[in-house]
Design goal:
24% strand; 4-stranded antiparallel sheet; alpha+beta
């Protein structure tokens, strides 16, 4: 996991505030980008603690915050303003 990494060309973006939690949006978007069912992906918990990630972003921080990591061979960036970005 890294914090503050600039992204390469964007493959896809979504707003996680329209789902139950950031971790849910991540799994849905990675499944879409990789053309796989979400049930065919490794559990997100094997890459990053999804509960901690959800808690981090659900507590309304006033400063810009984002977390970047790799999941299922794609790069993921989640921001506290509701954005999930995926790129290769």
């Amino acid at each position: 996991m890294s914090v503050g990494v600039d992204a390469a060309p964007l493959a896809r973006r979504t707003n996680w505030t329209t789902t139950e939690a950031p971790s849910t949006a991540i799994v849905q978007l990675v499944a879409d980008v990789t053309n796989r069912a979400h049930t065919d992906l490794d559990p997100l918990q094997e890459t990053i603690d999804g509960d901690a990630l959800n808690s981090l972003f659900e507590s309304a921080a006033s400063e810009r915050l984002y977390v970047s990591f790799t999941y299922e061979g794609v790069n993921v960036r989640v921001t506290n303003d509701g954005i999930v970005e995926i790129w290769e």
